[in-house]
Amino acid sequence: MRVDRVDRLVLLCxxxxxxxxxxxxxxxxxxxxxAIPVLTALFLFMAALDRRDAWSTPVLAGVAAFGGVLLxxxxxxxxxxxxxxxIGGLPAATAVFLYAVWPVTTVAAPLLYAWVYHTWLRxxxxxxxxxxxx
Amino acid sequence: MTPVVVIVLxxxxxxxxxxxxxxxxxxxxxxxxxxxxTLGFFVMAIGTFSSIQSGFGMIGHTANTYSWGxxxxxxxxxxxxxxxxxxxxLLGSRLYxxxxxxxxxxIPDVIRIRxxxxxxxxxxxxxxxxxxxxxxxxxxxxTGVIMSLIFGTSVTTGAIIxxxxxxxxxxxxxxxxxxxxxxxxGLLMVVMSIGTFFVATSTVGGWSTMLETIASHDxxxxxxxASQPLTYVYTFIVMAVxxxxxxxxxxxxxxxxxxxxxxKWGALVASVAYGITTLFALSVGLSMRALTIExxxxxxxxxxxxxxxxxxxxxxxxxAGFVLAGLLAAIMSSANSFxxxxxxxxxxxxxxxxxxxxxxxxxxARLASVFVVVCALVFALYLSQVVFLLGAIGWAAFAAAIxxxxxxxxxxxxxTALATTVAIAFGIVSNxxxxxxxxxxxxxxxxYIQTGGLITCLGIVVFIVVSVAVPSRESFDRFADxxxxxxxxxxNLV
Lengths: 134, 494
Prior knowledge:
The complex is a heterodimer of chains A (134) and B (494).
Chain A: H1 5-26, H2 29-47, H3 57-79, E1 86-87, E2 90-91, H4 92-126, H5 130-133
Antiparallel strand pairs in A: 1-2
Helix pairs in contact in A: 1-2, 2-3, 3-4
Chain B: H1 3-24, H2 29-34, H3 41-52, H4 55-68, H5 71-76, H6 80-101, H7 107-114, H8 119-151, H9 155-203, H10 207-217, H11 230-245, H12 248-251, H13 266-293, H14 306-313, H15 317-353, H16 361-382, H17 384-390, H18 395-408, H19 417-439, H20 451-469, H21 473-483
């Protein structure tokens, strides 16, 4: 059986999850922390595959951009964790989560889904509609 | 009659009216278990978020925020909206297509179609039933506490009355009533959370003043590494995100949509609604901490009283009544989903896995619903040791048991029936073992270990390892069949 895109993505998910487990068991918080944006991006890449396991280039770029922004925010949260900076009445790292990670993931991620669905995944479910089948 | 009682009685009357309306439209088990596949995106998405946002989400997160600091909501709530988007990405199209191709009303139905043999189907059916009763037991206890506050009854009487209310409209109207009451309850929770945010922060001079008050007393309270170790906090996030994607009350909602066009905006509605209700825990938890610093509130010995102390002492009775109705809504919206999931697993999934044919499915679904509620009531009120064990079979057990077999299984052809059975057994047994062994002090885990997140991740690892180590041609063929374009509705693929 040849190795396909999903196999590769599952392998990467396995590695990211296993690394997170090591962090959880041996108290390396960075391993758990960075597994969050990495796993999120991997799941979005997997979900962006249509049922023929094909990607659309613009969709791929959109998912990659979102994953990049999320990772950048996590890096910012890490870098600012032990600084004395304050933003909006909060320590800088907390502020990154409250004022950036929270709103971005609450609004941008679902908007990305709406766009990916409209431009790409929608075609996948059209033949599932009763009228299409008829 | 106090304003609080009037508000809550009006709320109950609306729930009964929805139940009566749904009962009049109830014709088949499809209506009872998946709302007749008639839901639009707005009702489905609000219902989805409200069934995830439980009593623990409102009262428990508030207590933890008061005790731990901002890190509590970062750990348990801030990334949950992202999980809704991930759910729609991973599950939306694939489950919708499956629901149109087969008669799929539940998670065990998906497992039955995806994997060959009875073991995976049977084990998932058992897990769904046990997990649903476990969740219901927790909701019964929470209902008893809130009802006793409203009506001045004992917790036991409150739990019985509250459970009877949920049971009545769910048994009458199934998930059709469940979905629409979830929708109304979700809207109530959103409005209540917005109101609470402004009321709570204004009691301590507004958002900025509140943060300044806390920072002047204890800067660390606002830091991400305030009281719990960072590994614990981030593991909690992993559990919250992966767990949300793999909760049955969310997954089954995708089987209830009326058309594919309803998928597009659901994630946005659910994410934003959940995000708004997080304001409740954030504002009440931090306001109570600021009030304590100012000497206007006592340092609470039992942090579970954070929410009730605030609304007993800091707001008008009418607003307190409105909030209590909102908290009941949070509890009941989770409860009715689990009554339906439990009833489905008992009446449809377990019987089909055992080769038993059920006639008059609606009548049996109603009886199964009553059975789930009675089990939960008996466990909650009279068998505290069972409650203790059931508590372990909650969020993380579902996450470990469902994420690999169902979420990855929808994409990955190498996922196998054996791996599914092993992952389900691992999810339940490891959660039970961790709970018993730590409670009996047989093992002492370091403070940085968050067992729920760890077991969730290990469940995924176990599923992948077993699938690769023991490949199955039959499981691969099932995957290919499942993804073949629709030719006609396949009713009984066993």
